[in-house]
Amino acid sequence: MEKNLLGLLKRNPLRAMSFFMGWIFSLKSVDKKNNAFPVVFDTPGLGIKINKHKNGKIIINGTLIIGKRGAREPYGNVVINMAEDSTLIINGTVFLGANVHLAVAPGAKLILGSKADGSLTINRGTEILAHEEIRIGSGSMLSWDILIMDSNVHTIVGAQNHKPIIIHENVWIGCRATILKGVELATGSVVSASAVVVKSVPVRSVVAGNPARIVKENISWAE
Predict the structure, then answer these.
(1) Sign of torsion, CA 169 76 108 178?
(2) Extended strands (E) in 47-130
(3) 219 DSSP assignment
(4) What is the DSSP letter of 97?
(5) Residues 53-100: pLDDT tens digits?
(6) Which residue from 189, 170, 70, 58 is spatially nearest to 125, judged by alpha carbons?
(7) pTM of the entire structure?
């Protein structure tokens, strides 16, 4: 390990520095990890802000990569808000683009990634707000400015105000889409740009519109 780091430092000092920054950051903020470098910054100086309350836990079973922003993009750090007794679990390799916002409410759980050898991409400006439980599977790709929330946030009398969201593996969500409480996106499904999803989506289906409806079935997609 030491020889590899020294070699990286000689070949690419900025990249090596980003590893060390992530290591230092993880000492303070990560509660449980299974490797020496659970957090990696794409470039030094672009980082992450974590607000963690009592008993909030971040568990990384793999690697969390914090992406860089482009010179012309008005985006800042990744922000993670962990309320009391909340849990964030990272499985496999998870990439968070600039200005991604994750918020986990008291007692709630957010699970990103489902495979130790899998990857999950969440691009810039996306917000994920977990009041009960949200799961996103490996192999999925989330575009920019997406909103995912499992709650009405404010209480509607007589309604079920929180209901978990499950996004299975290999799901593609287009830019500016909204995924609301109780939705299950099945394996291989696609959500079109700006769609508002209020009902579950079957395997290998494409949904579009507001509210989103099935527009194609039996599809396959590739990165």
Answers:
(1) negative
(2) 48-52, 57-66, 78-82, 87-96, 101-104, 109-112, 119-122, 127-130
(3) -
(4) -
(5) 989 999 999 999 888 765 445 557 899 999 999 999 999 999 999 889
(6) 70
(7) 0.88
